[in-house]
Please model this.
Amino acid sequence: MIANWKSNKNRAEVEEWMHTFEKQLEILVALDKLKYDTVICPPMPSLSQVSDRLLNKALHSHTFLGVQDISPFPAGSYTGAVSGHNLIGFGVKYAVVGHSERRKYFKESSLEVSKKVESCIEERITPIVCVDRNEIDAQADFIEKGKYSKLVVAYEPVDHIGTGIAQDVSEVLPVMRELKAVFRGARIIYGGSVNPDNIDEFIAEEEIEGFLVGHASLDVDEFGELLKA
Ligand code: PGA
Model:
């Protein structure tokens, strides 16, 4: 269950979220009700803050740190970019790459996304590669087949992101199968307006191996509801 906070939350808000989240997680773990590994992808300025909390808590075996983007370049003279090398020491295990908001607002191409996948793999970070249906083949072509098993691939139908209305499960499943066939060995997840009201329908389907959650991850209680589902 991946929380993608996007460009939300400042230091104080992160502190509050983490505080409540830890309590929720403790209860779920104590009751043996935690069914998911959780990944938190904070905005970059909060990386260290979240990292410190995760490294200091016994809960870290259930919760992992992710970033929302990574530089396609190695360490070097690339002002403003955060390289895989910069992330060493924070315990970053995942990186979202090729999110539709990056493709749209920052004009990222599938080629560039494939370079980000390389940056991740070099630092043993699992890339969470986001694609809409029409991007599947192009994105797959740019990534070496031998590396597919190192990926999480998130099916993210753009029309359903941030709308509050998830795509119908019956429409999601064929895409899950397509992704499974194309990206052999990858873990396939869904993202797009997942919330406590609709998660049950998705959980019932084995083919959906996880969730990338934007809006519903901002409110810690709502996110807690997803973990309890
Ligand atoms: P959403 O975002 O849950 O707010 O639709 C999902 C995403 O952007 O990955």
Summary: The pocket of 2-phosphoglycolic acid is lined by residues 4, 156, 161-162, 191-194, 212-216 (CB under 6 Å).
